[in-house]
Amino acid sequence: MILNTSNISAKFFFTNTAKKNTIFKERKEVLLDIANAVAEESKSKKFVNLNFICKHNARSSQLCQAWSFLASLTFNLQINSYSGGSEITSFHRNTIKVLQKCGFNFQLEDFSHQNPKYNISYDDGKKTFLGFSKYFEDATNQEPFIGINISKNLNDQFTSIQGATHTYHLPYFDLKNIDGTVNQEQKYAAVNEQIASEIYFLFSTIKGKVS
Questions:
Q1: For residue 206, which of 69, 77, 130, 196 sits 20 to 30 Å off, Cα-Cα?
Q2: Is residue 120 within 8 Å of 91, Cβ to Cβ?
Q3: Which residues contact 126 (CB under 8 A, 6 or more apart)?
Q4: Torsion of CA 134, 79, 195, 37, to 10 degrees
Q5: Residues 145, 151, 153, 155: what is their CA dihedral angle, to the nearest 10 degrees?
Q6: At CA 137, angle to CA 136 and CA 139, rounded to 5?
Q7: pLDDT digits (tens, 9 = 90+) for 154-189
Q8: Percentage with pLDDT > 90 across the chain
Q9: What is the mean predicted confidence (pLDDT) over 50-57?
Q10: Which residues on adjacent β-strands are paired with residue 145?
Q11: 130: enclosing H helix or E strand
Q12: pTM of the predicted protein model
């Protein structure tokens, strides 16, 4: 069962958002550091693994994984993208909605009231990834990986992560704080656009370094 597909092209949304959004200097510096690490690791590995980490693995970390999945195919890069948390919750319905609106498709793979699993694709649907809430060290997240902590608070748990060759802090607004408010749709859309544009910058930079 495909859930609420959209006529919007995710690839068009991706490139168009990157053109119109501005990335602040301090965030661009972190993205450039990550790009350098990926380019360096790609010299000795067939695939480089990225793991976007937050507390609940329900919202922004899932957005990062989705756009990174699309970016690796768009730029033809050998990069696996994952996400995880320090707790298991579920792939939040508001996260699903915002991704559906910009062209991602969700197919229920494994039903669970607490934490369903989805096969997620975009546009032609030929490539998919599995989306569900999980620990960052879950077996589905291949090691070693470059760990990217996207939580606002950089705590000790995420400064030194087993399985990570590098760790970086690239925080996003905690969308949990606006769930159930009148502004939730606009804020999810804004954070989604920020993530999409920054992921585009990251992967386009990596492409330039490894080409």
A1: 130
A2: no
A3: none
A4: 100
A5: -30
A6: 120
A7: 565 566 688 899 999 999 999 999 999 999 999 999
A8: 85
A9: 95
A10: 164
A11: strand 129-131
A12: 0.94
* Rg, C-alpha atoms of the chain: 16
CA distance 129 to 113: 20
Say which DSSP state 135 is in. B
**Cβ–Cβ contacts within 10 Å for residue 186, how many?**
11
Q: Distance (Å, rounded) from C-alpha 127 to C-alpha 189?
A: 24
At position 31, the amino acid (one-letter code) is L
φ/ψ (deg, to 5) at 165:
-80, -30
* Residue corresponding to tokens 């050998």: 78
In whole angstroms, give the CA distance from residue 23 to residue 38. 20
Q: Show Cβ contacts of residue 144 under 8 Å, excluding neighbours closer than 6 positions.
A: 49, 163, 164, 165
First to last CA, the chain: 39
Let me know: does 48 contact 40? Beta carbons within 8 Å. no
**Residue keyed to tokens 């470059």:** 146
What class has domain 2-210? alpha beta
Burial 4-17 (b: 16+ CB within 10 A, else e): eebeeebbebbebb
Name the token pair of 103.
């062209």
Write down the residue that tokens 């790009």 correspond to.
35
Side chain identity, residue 191: V
Residue type, 201: F
Task: Count the Cβ atoms, other than its own, within 10 Å of residue 71.
Answer: 24
Residue of 136, 58, 68 lying closest to 97 (CA atoms): 58
C-alpha angle 72/74/67, rounded to 5°?
60
